[in-house]
Amino acid sequence: MEFEDLREALDVFSLTGKASLQEIKARHRALVKRHHPDAGGSENDRIREINAAYQILLAYCRDYRFSFSREEFLEQRPEERLRQQFAQDPIWGG
Fold first, then answer.
1. Closest listed residue to residue 18, CA positions, set 49, 51, 64
2. Which of 59, 61, 12, 65 is nearest to 34 (CA)?
3. Tens digit of pLDDT per residue, the chain (94 long)?
4. Rounded to an integer, what is the distance from CA 83 to the centroid of its chain?
5. Domains of the chain, each with CATH number or no CATH
6. Which residues are in the J domain (predicted)?
7. Could you tell me the CA-to-CA distances from 71 to 21, 41, 63, 79, 83 in Å, in that order?
8. 19 contacts 63 by C-beta, under 8 angstroms
9. In CA terms, which of 17, 33, 35, 58 is 20 to 30 Å from 48?
10. What does the alpha-carbon distance between residue 23 and residue 30 come to, in Å, rounded to a whole number?
């Protein structure tokens, strides 16, 4: 896979920036529901394009190396960062 393949897949799904695996799956379901021939759509080529893009995105996610560092954890869970920041503060909860 090349970066351009990933960019094209993101364009098919109208995704920019960051997306979770759940968001990608939900977007795929919505696109298939809208364009599938059995649902009144007549866009076989569009369904093939959507499914090909989905496979690229899944492959990227499957091969992605996750960081389990404290910094990344707090980036992904900002509420935890705030809880830790204010937990010992006598005004906010300590």
1. 64
2. 12
3. 899 999 999 999 999 888 999 999 999 999 999 888 777 666 788 999 999 999 999 999 999 888 899 998 988 888 888 888 777 777 766 5
4. 26
5. 3-63 (1.10.287.110), 67-94 (no CATH)
6. 8-72
7. 21, 45, 21, 13, 15
8. no
9. 17
10. 10
Task: Please tell me the total number of residues recorded for the chain in this structure.
Answer: 94
Q: What is the pTM for the complete model shown?
A: 0.73
Can you tell me which residue has the tokens 């960062």? Answer: 81
Asked if 74 and 80 count as a contact pair (C-beta separation under 8 A), the reply is yes
In a 13 Å sphere around the CA of 85, the CA atoms on its Cβ side amount to 7
